[in-house]
Design brief:
27 strands, Glucose Permease (Domain IIA), mainly beta, six-stranded antiparallel beta sheet, ten-stranded antiparallel beta sheet, globular, 33% strand, 4 helices, Immunoglobulin-like, 425 residues
Length: 425
């Protein structure tokens, strides 16, 4: 029986190699890599005035030897939008749940490429309808059964861009000096960007659009050694609802831990968000507020809230190294479900923080924007301010959540309307 099985295996391998050799030139061929997207590319307009497409590619090595990624090209609307190779490609490639960047994919394993496509300014607030990808890789010439691999180029996947508009919300904080210390979009070393988990049987990046907000006062995060929560400028700041909605759940009885210390109370997934509130603001749209101050949550399950209503105070509970607000919008009432892009209706950009600060000092560069930015997604390291007037309730909670992302035709219509208005004025 063993000899028969071995003979059948050799015959099957011989047949597969024969089929590869007989395939006509230019036809689809065998590859060592399988490439697929975790989800459709999501579009958001950033505070830098440019569109951002965020998604992740899971690259599985189905071969018997390690593979090395060499280049990646993304095209959309007939234009090359992104090309990465060498160290630049390695910098955005990770093994699952790992911080180390690597372009090497071990045999029978999966890496993830963190895709951040910054669109040319000529796109304005438009997005391409679909994206194509070409990935080139290498495998050892002397690898076992090397001849069964017909191509080291993968032309996949072809992806349609998610046509839904980002959710339009108000700011959850007021005042100046609010630093986006962990957010979208161009930093693959940010925890929010590379943390991919399996949720309900599928790989998801729950935090790609989520923001960790900390406060700067006088260019510093805290006074003294920062080991007391009261040393931090943002601790105890009021947190406001970004839109009208209904409270789904709250937690209010977890302790605030000392800064820079590991939390021994993380015993289950629900503990990681600390004290929190989850509010349904639309169909499949849940605003989540994490790490709130113990005893500060003012709302209860089932309660209707209005935009700008105070929910609680900024704290240091859950999985945290210092007082901050974790805010995001999820598809389901769970911090670990898939994240949704959002834009804030009005905020003022005060500058951009340096990439590698030495706390507590954080150097902020760039001239502040006098006019409010309307509407946009605050990018990582942005420092911004929001005023009470910026919390303008949406007339129907989340009216624009399900609309498609704007295309080039929408941009032309908007330009025509602006020209018509100018002629009539």
């Amino acid at each position: 029986m063993t000899s028969l099985r071995r003979g059948c295996g050799v015959a099957a391998l011989f047949l597969m190699v024969s089929l590869v050799a007989a395939a006509p030139a230019g036809a689809a061929s065998t590859t060592a890599l399988k490439v697929e997207a975790l989800h459709a590319p999501q579009w958001v307009h950033g505070s830098d005035g440019r569109g951002q497409l965020e998604y992740d590619l899971a690259v599985t090595n189905v071969f018997s030897a390690d593979a090395s990624l060499e280049s990646l090209e993304v095209r959309g609307d007939g234009r090359r939008l992104l090309r990465l190779q060498g160290a630049a490609l390695a910098a955005v490639t990770r093994r699952l749940f790992a911080e180390e960047a690597t372009a090497r994919i071990s045999a029978a394993s999966t890496n993830v490429i963190l895709m951040d496509v910054v669109l040319p300014r000529s796109f304005g607030r438009a997005a391409p309808r679909r994206l194509t990808h070409r990935i080139r890789y290498s495998i050892p010439a002397d690898a076992r059964a090397r001849s069964i691999i017909g191509s080291t180029t993968v032309d996949a996947p072809v992806l349609r861009v998610d046509r839904r508009r980002p959710v339009v919300i108000g700011a959850p904080l007021r005042g100046s000096g609010w630093l986006d210390s962990n957010g979208c979009c161009d930093d693959p070393t940010a925890n929010h960007r590379f943390t991919i988990l399996a949720f309900d049987g599928a790989l998801v990046n729950a935090e790609v659009f989520a923001i960790d907000w900390t406060r700067l006062v006088g260019g510093a995060l805290y006074t003294g050694d920062g080991r007391q929560n009261s040393d931090w400028a943002g601790f105890g700041a009021p947190i406001y609802s970004v839109a009208g909605g209904t409270v789904v759940s709250t937690v209010d009885d977890l302790p605030d831990i000392p800064p820079f210390e590991a939390n021994p109370g993380l015993r289950r997934p629900a503990d990681w968000a600390g004290n929190n509130a989850i509010i349904r603001i639309g169909r499949g749209r849940y605003a989540v507020y994490g790490h709130l101050q113990a005893g500060s949550v003012r709302v209860r399950r089932g309660q209707r809230v209005r935009a700008g209503q105070q929910l609680g105070r900024l704290g240091n509970s859950g999985n945290t190294q210092g007082p901050h607000l974790h805010f995001g919008i999820q598809e389901r009432p769970n911090f670990f479900s898939r994240g949704v892009p959002f834009v804030i209706n009005r905020f003022r950009l005060e500058g951009v923080a340096e990439r590698a600060p030495t706390p507590p000092r954080v150097r902020v560069t760039g001239p502040p924007r006098i006019e409010p930015i309307v509407p946009a997604h605050p990018l990582g390291r942005d420092v911004h301010a929001a005023d009470p007037a910026d919390h303008r309730p949406m007339t129907d909670g989340c009216r624009r959540c399900s609309q498609r992302a704007p295309g080039r035709r929408d941009e032309r219509r908007l330009a025509f309307r602006r020209r018509s208005s100018a002629l009539l004025s």
